[in-house]
Amino acid sequence: MPIADSDGTSIYYERHGSGPAILFVHGSGGHHAAWWQQVAALREEFTVLTVDLRGFGKSDSSMAEFDGQDFPGDVVAVLDREDITDAMLVGQSIGSVAALRAGLLRPERVSSVVLGHSLGGISHPELKELAAADRAEAVKLPVIDRLLTRSFQRERADLTFLFQQMGTFNVARMQDLRNLDTNGPSLEEIEACGVKVAFLAGEKDAVLSVKTVTRAHELLAGSHLEIVPDAPHSMYWETPGRYNAAVARLRRTLTAPKDSA
Fold first, then answer.
1. Edge-to-edge strands, sheet with 21-25
2. In what residue span(s) does the AB hydrolase-1 domain sit (predicted)?
């Protein structure tokens, strides 16, 4: 069982396939197994790594409380353990904040970061205001309606149930991840680190609007933008074919020049 050491905390992860590396970072209701539809589809062309942040899945959950500021280090621990030097980190929702910070901590190990349904905790007054307006609308909906479309819930009650069950394997909760946004990186810090950033959003995301994500892309020089048609916030689960195609396309095309010195 692969385990990485994150400053004394045992972090569970898995490695599948071979090729250019993609490391997925789950959101507040997920863990390594949530990526089952991505692993099966991508492992023939890529090395696919999945991780359980502390408090989630099979990672150490014995601490009395959790600090979201530790999550980026959990991602870094896996990169160090596997000695990966050209990873693309793919975050889901608030997991994107941990992914971006991990990339900033270890730019020598990360070539690109994909911010899935997230602004990655970027510190910018206009983006903060836009995201707050999106959240104000999202909280009017039942939680499940923010994540999956109602048509999917009706037509795939089995997968909707499984989606909801995923969170029951975790000890940490949403409130343990929220402080990840504290002291987020500036646009200038991201641009200076040399890691490429892509925004990956769903057209039907009820949590973060396409308008907000597009504006973040416009503000972050050199960033990429992928908008997936008819996809909700949790498109990795509901529309895995389109999601996987977008991730594969980004892994094939996103590269960051490494300093040879």
1. 3-6, 9-16, 47-51, 21-25, 87-92, 110-116, 196-202, 224-228
2. 20-239
